[in-house]
Fold this protein.
Amino acid sequence: MPRIFSGIKPTGHLTLGNYLGAVRQWVDVDQHKADALFCVVDLHALTVDHDPARVRRLSRQAATLLLAAGLEPARCTVFVQSHVHEHTRLAYLLECTASDGEMRRMIQYKEKSARERAVGGNVRLSLLTYPVLMAADILAYAADEVPVGDDQAQHVELTRDLAVRFNQRYGRTFTVPKAVVPAVAARVMDLQDPLSKMGKSHAETAGIVYLLDEADIVRKKIMRAVTDSGSDVVYDPEERPGVANLLEILAACTGGKPADLAEHYSSYGALKQDTADAVLALLQPVRDRHAELCADPGYVDAVLREGAERARSLARPTVDAAYAAIGLMPPA
Ligand code: AQP
């Protein structure tokens, strides 16, 4: 059985992009076909300016939403990254394997550091080294596959490079993983700015559908989505990114193909109505289950405690082997 690892960062409320690009695949496919681990990667949320109480709250909310979306503790392991110290133990060894040049080439680093500098903020060193910690997250579990949205594929590529380099230098220690990007909704775009990805930490929220948004808010955001000049509905991501984004969301929700769906519409209004209906049909059960789970915090705690125990027991042998391989003296 293949091993799968994936994670979600508690930098904001989970979005429709996180759901369609990642979580739904974890629920519908990954937990059934593999030994799958899903992690709330809270340490990654500290790479940008953060409010401690908010990160704590969002970590719990993210874990609860993963369960609400349908992850079953009997089928997969759900845990919080900072509860398993093997991640940071391994990250240091991988920092000794990576070069600063390859870190600076990461697109997310370039974008997020530029955003931070634009508002006069300090760029944390951890923002630069974040892909190394992500590599440790994956390699510690000897994961074969890493299901991710398009935006994370470069980081998985780096993880592969680090695994191969480490294995060549110090002897075979790590499994070399591969990224698995979903065919549809690999990149859900912001409804107000269809050239930017829908990101949970963005300050402008009008174009972002959050999983916990009330139904009328979801509908309003979709009905106000920026569309392109012209009025005919065609699927053309280059020339008509706004309409293409709506068609891709509708396709991801209903299982159709964006170009085929376009043929059913003669106005933007009808496309938006149907997209809103489809999104709400998908999200309502998740919202309902989330409310139930919030009323039972002991259950969520128990799932995370058991998840961390299992994750620790899986990661420790690999990380210990890496410590030995790189030349560190074992404790007596
Ligand atoms: N817009 C998106 N479309 C498709 N997939 C997406 N993912 C994120 N945004 C989209 C996928 O969701 C998973 C978890 O993402 P993450 O929390 O690890 O970090 P991220 O990719 O940086 O997500 P965000 O929402 O954009 O967060 P911020 O704003 O903090 O950077 C990943 O598999 C990701 O590909």
